[in-house]
Amino acid sequence: MSVRETSLEAYYDKVLPELTERQEQVLIPFYENPGRDYTNHEIARYIGLPINCVTGRTQELRGEGERGVQPSILRWKERRKDKVTGNNAKSMEIIVGVKQ
After folding, report:
1. Distance (Å, rounded) from C-alpha 98 to C-alpha 92?
2. What is the pLDDT of residues 2-56, one digit of tens each?
3. What separation in angstroms does the CA of 27 have from each of 55, 86, 87, 96?
4. DSSP-assigned states of every residue in 14-77
5. What CATH number corresponds to the domain at position 53?
6. Known InterPro entries for this protein (predicted)?
7. Has residue 100 been placed in a domain?
8. How many angstroms separate the CA atoms of 16 and 51, rounded?
9. Residue 76 located in a structural domain
10. Chain Cα centroid distance, residue 45
11. Considering Cα of 30, then 17, then 41, then 63, what sign does the dihedral take?
């Protein structure tokens, strides 16, 4: 087994099981649509939760804040037009190598 495979296996065994149910919900759009990026509003619409239930979890999944997940699972991708609000917003993507 290569170092990379061993690292990924350790990541899946140690980090992913520690995610909260709400953090896992926020990742659903990324798992169901690999390669796509989402804004907070797009995630909220996709999973049917209010925006205030999503923003804190995405912050944690980017490794930020008090309860930030390490290593982070999401990262900022680009600023683009949000498909929900029509405003410019930052989109996020899942970091390559995270189990999908």
Report:
1. 14
2. 555 555 555 555 555 578 899 999 999 999 998 999 999 999 999 999 999 999 9
3. 12, 22, 22, 13
4. HTGGG--HHHHHHHHHHHHSTT--B-HHHHHHHHT--HHHHHHHHHHHTT-STT--SS-SEEEE
5. 1.10.10.10
6. RNA_pol_sigma_r3/r4-like
7. no
8. 23
9. yes
10. 15
11. negative
The pTM score is: 0.79
Tell me how far apart the terminal alpha carbons of the chain are, to the nearest angstrom.
Answer: 20
User: How far is residue 74's CA from residue 85's CA, in Å, rounded to a whole number?
Assistant: 21
Range of the domain at 42: 3-94
Q: What is the pLDDT of residues 46-100, one digit of tens each?
A: 999 999 999 999 999 999 887 888 888 999 999 999 999 999 999 999 986 645 4
